[in-house]
Design goal:
The chain has one helix and no strands. By secondary structure, it is mostly helical. It is rod-shaped. InterPro entries: Killing_trait_RebB.
């Protein structure tokens, strides 16, 4: 119990216990924030990789189409 003060000791104990709870949860909350940030960064990297792969697929399709067009034009000459 808290020392004798003008404030009721039950009130000071409740406030003290609340502060202890907040300080006790701080490490877990900070690690949760770190894990969420890491997961978000990894997901952005995966999205960038997917976009790059899609872009390369479009380039591959364009090259294939151009090559087929050149082959077809050469066959008619």
């Amino acid at each position: 119990m808290a020392a004798d003060t003008p404030v009721n000791s039950q009130v000071t104990d409740a406030v003290t216990q609340t502060n202890v709870k907040v300080l006790g949860e701080a490490p877990a909350q900070s690690m949760a924030l770190v894990y969420q940030s890491m997961a978000h960064s990894i997901s952005l990297a995966m999205q960038n990789a997917q976009q790059a792969q899609g872009g390369l697929q479009q380039i591959g399709n364009a090259v294939t189409s151009s090559a087929v067009t050149m082959i077809m034009n050469a066959a008619h000459k």
